Amino acid sequence: MKNLYLLIFIGICLLVTSPVKAQLQDQRNNLSIGVNGGVNISSVSFTPSIKEGKLIGPGFGVTIRYIGEKYFKMLCGIQGEVNFSQRGWKEVIEDGTGDTYHRTMNYIEIPLLAHLAFGKDKGNGVRFVLNLGPQVGYLIGENETMSETWDPSGRTPNAQYGKMADKKFDYGIVGGGGMEVRTGIGHFVLEARYYFGLSDFYNSTKKDPFSRSAHSYIAGKLTYLFDLKK
Fold first, then answer.
1. Is 5 left (phi over 0), alpha (psi -120 to 50) or beta?
2. CB of 142 closer than 8 Å to CB of 164
3. How big is the chain by its Cα radius of gyration, in Å?
């Protein structure tokens, strides 16, 4: 069922970004490339649940964006990225031991986004931007960090301790919005995003300890773009 939702969502994104000649108001051919960086505030949706805080980690990469048309007052295009993204979870342990535990999981992720913008069309100025689309990722490494006095005995659930991910491939939906400031030296985009994972990184059969183990995170990003073609 999750795969069906993903296919429907991808189809909607393609419809948004495809040119509709009968409604095309103004052709564009704006190609931009640049870099992005920011922070992820992440957690994992576990079933059975684990009491968690928020884990903060870095995210950065490269961005390419193409704007192909202006429909009424809305600029329409597509945006792709290749990013390093650190996710994971931080447990809240309230048994009086003072123990601490968190897991960092490093991914290479590729979002493919429908890009919509409102505001200043050409030249310097401000735009408001929306990005929405599917995202895939691949786990390249993970690490557990715990206190020196770490003793998980008696805690439930505890199958996650020492258990590395069963599945490296990850996919989900990402979306967000923000503000773009266009200047003579390039474009600066400040954006907030939310990622909702549709895949589990642990096996989820009846014999496995978790029926769900999916990532989610809120990201704050700053992107710098410069035009290759206006």
1. alpha
2. yes
3. 20
Reported in sequence order, the residue ranges of 15-73 that DSSP labels E, i.e. its strands, are 26-47, 52-53, 55-71
Instruction: For 134-170, write each residue's pLDDT tens digit.
Output: 999 999 999 999 999 888 888 889 999 999 999 999 9
- State the Cα–Cα distance between residues 116 and 93, nearest whole angstrom: 43
**What percentage of residues in the chain have a pLDDT greater than 90?**
76
Instruction: Give the pairing type, strands 101-119 and 125-146.
Output: antiparallel
Which pLDDT belongs to residue 204? 95
Cβ–Cβ contacts within 10 Å for residue 214, how many? 20
Please say whether the beta carbons of 112 and 62 come within 8 A.
Answer: no
Phi, psi of 201 (to 5 degrees): -95, -15
User: Among residues 82, 65, 78, which one has the least CA distance to residue 15?
Assistant: 78
Tell me phi and psi for residue 21, to 5 degrees.
-60, -35
Please state, in angstroms and as integers, the Cα–Cα distance from residue 212 to each residue in 55, 130, 207, following that order.
19, 29, 13
pLDDT at 21: 45
- Dig out the tokens for 103 from the structure: 């897991």
Q: How many CB atoms lie within 10 A of CB 100?
A: 15
**Tens of pLDDT along 7-46?**
455 555 555 545 444 455 688 889 999 999 999 999 999 9
Q: How far apart are CA 165 and CA 228, in angstroms?
A: 40
Mean pLDDT over each residue of the chain, to the nearest integer: 90
